[in-house]
Write a structure and sequence with these properties.
The protein contains 23 helices and 10 strands. It is of the alpha/beta class. The two termini are about 65 Å apart. It binds adenosine-5'-diphosphate.
């Protein structure tokens, strides 16, 4: 975060933008905030203001009927105000219940919307981690916008009401006598100046403490990470390791380190010294000012400027001016501090989508007649100097079976990521039916692919919804796909069939599926999408080579007229394919059928084949 001083205009415009973002996500949040803070600010004055005439009437021995009338009026108005305030506060609290999730949703929406290359990058992950860190540490960033707005509105209401109601106190003359100087405007100005100075001093002290706290944000990152790693996330899975390796010792070691949260940290040392004093001092100043206000108001009443019953009302009013003004100073400075954190939020939210968005439609062809061609495609991952793919030339037609083989790291997955346009090539082009894929509408282009990635994920939702990737779906089709994927027997065992929850996060009767079963569900999901291209990217890496070969050849049957691309570093799984592309070091070094490739005894394919043959010879 830069230490440059931010202009007042920028401070306000960033907060206004923050307010607009909240408004977009919850249109009731701000109205509820505004009204509840206004009413909460005004209500306390009403009781003071209305009860003063009662005290004065009593002191003047007024008639009972007059006192009753005043009491009824006071009770009625304060009860109505208190009721309205409570209702508004409840409304506002209910809206605020979701604010933490909205804050997360703002980040999640942006993440889902950005170019995959950015979503996938370490730089963007670090930016998001830093924003969350700011929120965890001090609520800074977008969350703070709400808190500051709340407090600013409350402080404004209190200051303005206080000023309006105390005006008469300062203007009322004091009858001739030793205390008549209390009635002079000069004295009133003096008192106001004293209060302003005190409000300013306590505001500055509070800000000093606040800034000192915030300046630890960067240092606190390590402390926070240690805590979240060792305290919050030691769930069931880690318990095993913790017990076997007695990892609590390493936990204790790091907990004792001089990190932000330990007693011996530099932060704790400052907290005991100057910082602690700065936090406590505003309370002392507040007490001094209160004393001065009491003295002034009571002496003025005693000198005969107004009846004694009005003293409470004036004390409340002047105290309101002081507390409101102090809070305003504190919040304005909090805004300045928060503006720097907001810059990090906005930098993230403003990450541009630089991927070209084409407008051609992919023509949902009934004949599924698609041809894909990679023409001179090279690719480097963003921020990487090395080519992950180099001059790849290949074309495949609809209905064919293409195998992509090669050792780990040879570029197979990268090839698929480019094919489905998660990344654009650094050089060269990929053509669909002769047209650069960048020219197609991205959402439509995505529609023609079903991919089972190696690290696919399923949701803790009902089985059928996972297969259909939708809450509303065709049950017969989902069952058919599960059956084709080899899941029929397991489905028959499921307590609630397609409605059975996977895993137990959302339903205690949910079922835990094994890795192999999950993979079948993922394949069923790919079939349900019914896209013309279907890609299996080593989803079977956890299985032994023979089981993988079985799944692949089975899949060959169920893929039907679709174009299927199989990726594997195991050659035997793919020998049934029409075409095999052998990747090595990011290049396609050989292309052909199994027999053709094997015939080249010096080729990469033959080399890999011989190395792996031992697995398949029974
Ligand atoms: P394969 O699927 O054949 O195992 P990959 O396509 O995953 O190989 O990887 C090809 C090369 O690209 C490897 O050198 C790998 O380290 C690199 N690579 C893969 N993903 C990324 C990434 N997100 N950022 C940078 N480099 C990557």
């Amino acid at each position: 975060m830069s230490k440059k001083r931010i202009s007042v205009k920028t401070v306000f415009s960033r907060h206004l933008r923050g307010i607009r973002i909240w408004q977009k996500y919850d249109s009731q949040l701000l109205p509820s905030l505004l009204l509840s803070r206004l009413f909460s600010g005004v209500t306390p004055f009403a009781a003071d203001w209305l009860s003063a005439p009662i005290l004065n009437a009593l002191a003047a021995h007024a008639e009972a009927a007059q006192v009753w009338r005043l009491v009824a009026l006071t009770l009625g108005v304060t009860a109505a105000l208190a009721g309205a305030t409570a209702a508004l506060n409840r409304w506002h609290e209910a809206r605020m219940d979701g604010y933490w999730y909205i804050n997360e949703k703002i980040l999640a929406d942006k993440h889902a919307d950005m170019d995959f290359a950015d979503a996938d990058s370490q730089r963007v992950a670090d930016m998001a981690a830093q924003i969350r860190q700011n929120t965890n540490w001090s609520g800074c960033g977008l969350l703070r916008v709400l808190q500051i707005t709340q407090r600013l509105i409350g402080a404004f209401a209190t200051t303005l009401c206080g000023l309006a109601l105390s005006l008469r106190l300062f203007l009322l003359p004091v009858p001739e006598g030793s205390l008549s100087f209390l009635g002079s405007p000069l004295f009133a100005l003096l008192l106001l100046a004293f209060m302003a100075a005190a409000a300013f001093a306590s505001g500055r002290l509070a800000n000093y403490a606040e800034n000192a706290w915030l300046s630890f944000a960067a240092d606190a990152r390590f402390g926070n990470r240690v805590y979240s790693a060792y305290s919050w996330s030691s769930g069931e899975r880690r318990d095993l390791d913790i017990r076997i390796y007695r990892q609590e010792r390493i936990t204790q070691h790091y907990m004792r380190q001089d990190n932000t949260f330990s007693e011996s940290s530099p932060f704790a040392a400052r907290m005991r010294g100057k910082l602690g004093l700065a936090l406590a001092a505003p309370q002392g100043i507040g007490a001094l000012v209160s004393g001065a206000i009491y003295l002034f108001v009571c002496l003025k009443a005693w000198a005969g400027a107004f009846p004694i019953g009005s003293a409470t009302q004036y004390i409340g009013a002047v105290t309101g001016v002081f507390t409101g003004a102090s809070a305003l100073i504190v919040e304005l400075a909090a805004m300045r501090a928060n503006a720097a954190f907001l810059a990090e939020n906005f930098e993230y939210l403003d990450l541009p989508n630089s991927m070209y968005q084409g407008s051609l439609t992919t023509e949902k062809r009934a004949d599924r007649n698609y041809t894909v061609e990679f023409r001179g495609v090279s690719f480097k991952y963003p921020g990487s100097e090395a080519y992950a793919l180099r001059d790849v030339n290949i074309s495949f037609r609809v209905g064919s079976r293409l195998a992509v083989v090669g050792m780990n790291g040879s570029g197979k997955t990268t090839f698929i990521k480019l094919l489905c346009r998660l990344y654009d090539p650094t050089e060269g082009e990929i053509l669909l039916n002769g047209i650069d894929i960048r020219k197609y509408r991205y959402d439509e282009y995505m529609d023609i692919f079903s991919i089972v990635f190696q690290d696919f994920s399923l949701f803790a939702l009902p089985l059928g919804e996972n297969v259909a990737a939708s809450a509303q779906y065709d049950r017969a089709r989902a069952e058919d796909c599960l059956q084709k994927a080899g899941f029929a027997e397991r489905l028959a065992d499921m307590p609630a069939g397609l409605d059975t929850y996977l895993y137990k996060e959302l339903d205690k009767d949910g079922v835990e599926v094994s890795g192999g079963e999950a993979q079948k569900i993922a394949i069923a999901r790919a079939l349900y999408k019914d896209a013309p291209f279907i890609v299996l990217d080593e989803p079977t890496a956890a299985l032994d080579p023979i089981a993988e070969a079985e799944i692949y050849s089975r899949f060959n049957e169920i893929a039907g007229d679709k174009t299927a691309i199989y990726i594997s570093h195991r050659l035997s799984s793919c020998k049934f394919c029409d075409g095999i592309a052998v990747f090595d070091g990011g290049k396609i070094v050989q292309q052909g059928s199994h027999e053709e490739l094997l015939a080249d005894a010096d080729g990469k394919y033959a080399e890999l084949w011989m190395a792996q043959a031992q697995y398949y010879v029974k």
